[in-house]
Amino acid sequence: MIRNSTNRRLKTTTAACLAAAVCVCMSTGCQSTINGQTLPSPYYLQDDVQYFPSGPEFKLPREAAALRAARAQEKLDRR
């Protein structure tokens, strides 16, 4: 009787772990990383291509102008 209960519990636990593993595998995304390579999804040929044009080379022009103005004002204040 005890052996039958233990055997049933082992089967139930194994089935639950297997179901959880399948759920985790199904919910992980399309890309996979294998040996340091990021491999695309199998549907990458049907994916839409997104194009982002390049922006300005220097990203902080207003901050640079403000710093130059502050330095110039500081030089005028020293005199």
UniProtKB/TrEMBL annotation:
Keywords: Signal. This is Membrane or secreted protein. PROSITE patterns: PROKAR_LIPOPROTEIN (PS51257). The keyword Signal applies. Residues 1-32 form the signal peptide. It comes from the Bacteria.
